[in-house]
Structures are given as structure tokens and as C-alpha cells.
Amino acid sequence: MAELEAGAARARPVSPHLQIYRPMLTMMMSIVHRITGAALYFGILLLAWWLIAAAAGPNAYANVEWFMGTLIGKLVLFGYTWALLHHMLGGIRHLIWDTLHGLAPPEREWLTLATLIGSITLTLVVWVIGYLSLGGPR
Amino acid sequence: MTTPQHLRTPMRRVRGLGAAHSGTAHFWHQRVTSIAGIPLTIALLVIVVALVGRSHATVVQVLASPLVAIIMLLFVINSAYHMWIGMQEIILDYVHDEKWKLLSLMANTFYVIVTALACCYAILKLSFGV
Predict the structure, then answer these.
(1) Mutate to test the interface with A, among B28, B104, B115 (most CBs of A within 10 A)
(2) Cα(A67)–Cα(A50) distance, rounded to whole angstroms?
(3) CATH of the domain at A29
């Protein structure tokens, strides 16, 4: 029984985990869906801050506007926009899969790529519209 | 016919199991809130983009209008429930220690209620203008 004593544990074979598989887009987007979901979970604090500041008054609102105008603020907001859109499109993909459609190899790859390209495109569209509307009436 | 070892049917033993000790209700509710979230997210983006760079007075006026306020309230409440289920799922996947599991599930509930209530209170305050 000497090999069972503390400190003499042998490396036993374990079932294969993620690192043994070739990285694929579907598995990457699977974890990205969870990561964006978790990011949005904390990202709602931005929405809460914005709403509370608007309700609190012009001074509090000016603080939010200042932060959102900084480079870090813009990056956070840009990331939030992408996470929101990516999680929404990823969710639509999962809803399609829930109906047992789009699960064949070419379809699932195509759908997954479409959510990634779609989220990046839509994020850029939202920001371009946002910047264009900045010149509008105050 | 042999005498059963116990009176519980296999279905009874299947029901109520899983890491959360509950059934598939949350799975279904996550789908319902995800479908509701699609139009609400699009509406939120339209509202926020329309208000970027506007004066505080304009922002207050728009957020206080009934249609916008109702959409914002729906977004917050729908997202809060969706977030609560989603984070619970993440916790149940990765936190196996009973003590930490219990504490993190509790923290999830507190966090979601506090953020949702804060958002709702702000929206209602803007709406009623007090």
C-alpha cells in the first residue's frame, strides 16, 4: 500500500478535456456567449449609473457624460455594445438550435460565423449612427 | 408481481434533482426572457443612441415619456431575471463547494435585486418627476 500514501499520488489517466481538442469556432463562440453574458451581468451597472445620474440631476449626469467621453469610458461602452449585440445574436443562434434546425456541420459553422460577423458589423453601425447623431439638435 | 422496495416511482426520484435541486423551469424561463430580450435590446439601443450627447434636460424629458419609461422598465425587469438565471447556471457549473455555492447563489440574488430595483427606482423617479 506504499503507493497510496500521501505525497506518492500517481498521475492517473483522466477523461479528455478542452485542451485535447482542436479549437473550433463553435466551441470558441460557446464560451464567448457565456463570457459576454457575465460581462453584461456587471455591465448593467453602467445602465444603472446612467439612469440614477439622470434622475439625480445635472451635476451627477455631467459626471457620467465626462466618464463616457474619456478613452476608457468609450472603450468600456464600445465593449458593452459589442457584448450586448453578440450575446443577442448568439442567443438567436441558440434559439434556432433549440428548434433542431441548423445543427448539421456546414449550417452550424455558417450560423456561428454569422453571429460573429453580425455582432461586429452591428456594433460599428450603432457607433457610426451614434457619432452622426451627435451633430443633431441638442 | 414483486413487492416494490419503496413506494416512490422512478419519476419521483428524477424530479427535483440537478445541481439546483429544481427542474427545467429555469431552462424554459431563460428562453422566454431571451425572446423578450430581442426587441427590448433593440429598443434600448435606439433610445440610448438617440440620447447620446444630448443635454440633461432633454435626456430627462425623453426618459420620462411613458413609452420610453415602460420599455426601459421592461428591459430592466426582463434582463434582471435573465441575468439571475444565467449567473446561477454559471455558479452551479463552476462552484462545487457547498458553502461557496450557497454564498455565491445568495450574492447573485442580492446583486440582481439591488441593480434592478435601483434602475426601476430611477426610471420611476424620472417619470413622476419628484
Answers:
(1) B115
(2) 11
(3) 1.20.1300.10
Q: How many independent structural domains does chain B possess?
A: 1
* Residue B11 within any structural domain of the chain: no
Is A51 contained in some domain? yes
Mean pLDDT of B69-81: 98
Interface check B60 vs A, CB under 8 A: yes
Instruction: Give the per-residue pLDDT at A15.
Output: 78
A with B: how many residue pairs have Cβ under 8 Å apart?
A: 84
A55–B122 C-beta distance less than 8 A: yes
Residue B13 maps to a domain: no
Q: Considering only the beta carbons, identify the residue of B34, B52, B55 that sits closest to A134.
A: B52
Considering only CB atoms, B83 lies closest to which of A41, A51, A94, namely A41
pTM of the predicted model as reported, rounded to 2 decimal places: 0.85
Task: Residue B52: give the domain boundaries.
Answer: 23-128
Domain encompassing residue A127:
24-132
Task: Assign residue B28 the CATH number of its domain.
Answer: 1.20.1300.10
A3 inside 8 A of chain B by CB: no
Cα distances (Å, whole numbers) of residue A117 to A11, A25, A85, A121? 43, 12, 11, 6
Environment class of A32 (CB within 10 Å of its CB; exposed 0-12, middle 13-18, buried 19+): buried
Res. A1: pLDDT tops 50:
no
- Residue A15 within any structural domain of the chain: no
B18 Ramachandran zone, left/alpha/beta (phi>0; psi -120 to 50)? left
| Domains: count for chain A | 1
A133 chain-B contacts, CB cut-off 8 A: 49-50, 52-53
